[in-house]
Amino acid sequence: MVKKVCEIVKKQLALSEDTLITGRSKFSELGADSLDTVEIVMGLEEAFGITVEEDSAQSIVTVQDAADLIEDLVMANHN
């Protein structure tokens, strides 16, 4: 899940392929502002067929936070 989130973050932020992103990477450290973060969340919603509530979206700080949230939402949708 983290790998897919990293790919989406790179695409949304127009980062080069050799930019190192890990689960511990903070969106702010990657140059994302609040609008970029909204666009990342929208990209994740589209990629995974989920809806992220605004409160949940605001709690996302790192790539791992996003991956964990998506995993929870995907699991909830399949149950």
Automatic annotation (TrEMBL):
One cellular component term from this protein's GO annotations in UniProt: chloroplast
Entry keyword annotation includes Secreted: no
Keywords: Chloroplast, Fatty acid biosynthesis, Fatty acid metabolism, Lipid biosynthesis, Lipid metabolism, Phosphopantetheine, Phosphoprotein, Plastid, Transit peptide
Domain Carrier: from-to ranges: 1-74
Localization: Plastid, Chloroplast
One annotated GO molecular function: acyl carrier activity
Family: Belongs to the acyl carrier protein (ACP) family.
Protein name: Acyl carrier protein
Species name: Ensete ventricosum
